[in-house]
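If you are new to this repository, start here. Below is one unmodified record pulled from the training split, so you can see the exact layout before writing a loader.
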Amino acid sequence: MRWWDIEPVLELEKDLFPEDAWSRGMFWSDLAHARGPEATRRYLVAVDRREDGDGSAGERIVGYAGLAAAGDLADVQTIAVAREHWGTGLGGRLLTELLRAATAFECAEVMLECRIDNIRAQKLYERFGFEAIGFRRGYYQPGNVDALVMRLTDPTTSVAGTQGTETHG
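And here is the target side for that same chain:
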């Protein structure tokens, strides 16, 4: 993800998470730590490239994901997939890339919070080996929705090959 991706990412963010969407500043702040030798973040976007009816190519961001690393611990900050791409495996490809980044950051564990009512995401994380370890009451505001806290030990064991929709950071 680069700075010019923030506006289309915000549109997707507001559509998918209307009550607790990230702000422009939150994305800018994390991207500021995603480049250079001291980088502690990895953000990427998934781009759908289609040929329009007139033969010209079009691009649209259909997913994004972000990871923060500190010492030997990584935290999945966000994963989002456009509704029309649900069930295509795109969420798994984004998560795979985040786990590769966690491995590159030499993180031994990966943590995340997931809305308690987001069963689709919980099932994805479980397939990758994440285990529920607790709750954070009222974590998602302003809706006051609880978060399920999940942990993956040894992200290298969950990284699998990907194909299809391109992801780039």
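Two things worth knowing about this chain: The radius of gyration is 16 Å. The CA atoms of residues 67 and 76 lie 5 Å apart.
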